[in-house]
Amino acid sequence: MAPAVEVCGSRETPEFEGKITVYVIVCAIIAAFGGLMFGYDIGISGGVTSMDDFLEKFFPAVYRKKRHALQNNYCKYNNQSLQLFTSCLYLAALTASFVASKVCSKAGRKHTMQIASIFFLTGAILTSGGVNLEMLIFGRIFLGFGVGFANQAVPLFLSEMAPSSIRGALNICFQLFITIGILIANLINYFTSNIHPYGWRISLAIAGLPALMLCLGSILICETPTSLIERNKVEKGIKVLRKIRGVENVDDEFDSILHACEMARQVKDPFRKLMKPVSRPPLVIAICLQIFQQFTGINAIMFYAPVLFQTVGFGNQAALLSSVITGLVNVFSTVVSVYLVDTVGRRFLLLEGCVQMFISQFIIGIILLKELKPVGNDLSKGEASFVVIMVCVFVMGFAWSWGPLGWLIPSETFPLETRSAGFAFAVSSNMLFTFVVAQAFLSMLCRMQASIFFFFAGWIIIMAVFTWFLLPETKGVPVDSMVDKVWKQHWFWSSFMADDDLRTDVKVV
Predict the structure, then answer these.
(1) Burial bucket for residue 297 (CB in 10 Å: 0-12, 13-18, 19+)
(2) Helix ranges (DSSP H) in 78-224
(3) Burial zone of 376 (CB within 10 Å; 0-12 exposed, 13-18 middle, 19+ buried)
(4) Strand partners, 7
(5) What is the CATH number of domain 16-508?
(6) What is the mean pLDDT of each run of 10 residues along the chain (509 residues)?
(7) Domain spans of the chain, in order of start
């Protein structure tokens, strides 16, 4: 029979046979513990850095500032070393993400997650047992390596394991577990803050539990069929594909994966491929989504929520309890995104989130500008409570939009040949700007005071404009059809597809 020539970019991806199996759900939950590690660290940092025992031991200058009756309300915690304790993790994760990209391609998603858990366990041991600031920072760097490896592997694992009909919902499990991790951390901080003088050690040590669960759980789960076939383990790949889909006839999906792997093998340098114009649309969008995600101000609020609530007049315990409330809102709002993302679409959620976050940031800024003076007064109980409500409204808007979709969209828009490399840029961009915000927030709060919330609100306007004009809808679009159905149809990105050397390869069938 004569070979048939098929241009990959022009073919339609069929609806593949398969069920939503219990095994896939179990694999997704175990993998999502990588998100739990990340979330726990986000939540635990702010609580620990507001504990007097921790500050007195490692940051005595900050402790003295905090106890000073006339200290500037906005500058109680302004200390570069304190910010470095929080932010050095993200600088380490940035560096690790590029190494993780190579490991993910060569060793697979499963082994990359195992390496992540070992790094994270090591970091938890070092930080909880820290006797000086250097040991703390060193431990945080190991935690950062774990975050970099986990954030590289887990979203790719989830996208490749999921049936296309629930790809969005299953991928958002990663973000859902991040929010659960933040909530658990806030609860732990609330209780350990009363354990003197070592409550902070308990908080930091518990970070090892989700890492241990990921390490042990990853022994039980399988590698993704895509990763197995990509690494020439074809027979094992098709066996796993039958297992996760719950049917024997997986020929169509197997052929699609095999074809994508053949194309990927022809690309010797995926990072160089990313620099070509036809790779620019998913790359630019992936990087911009990560930058915008951080400039919503979410991590400034989640890192330093107890600090922020103390700034507006809550005591230590009340501040930690308020963080628990925002953590609960974060979790339940992310569940909303799980249900809506594959029905209302990505763009709608992002735009609605922008409106909600802008309004809440603007109102918080107005209240603090009018009522919280730099020296001598706190907000009234009613005003402070309203600030907490507005923070919850902000967290809601983020949790069902820019939080989960910042990870989902990059994981589904890159073709296999540049998927791991492209996602490495997304992860590293996220970590870089998380580092920038974490390192700068307390200094910005001190200098800009209430205006910092207007600063973030301005960025949200930019995000909304970007989404409206430059972000195409990817809901329901098969990964193999992104070029034809998304990029070539877009008013702006189509100009980068003129030569289309991304999908001009031929397939012999």
Answers:
(1) buried
(2) 80-107, 109-128, 133-161, 167-171, 173-192, 199-205, 208-220
(3) exposed
(4) 506
(5) 1.20.1250.20
(6) 35 58 89 90 80 86 68 63 77 89 90 94 94 90 93 88 80 88 87 89 93 90 90 91 86 82 78 84 92 84 63 65 80 90 90 95 84 63 78 91 89 80 86 80 77 90 95 78 79 78 41
(7) 16-508
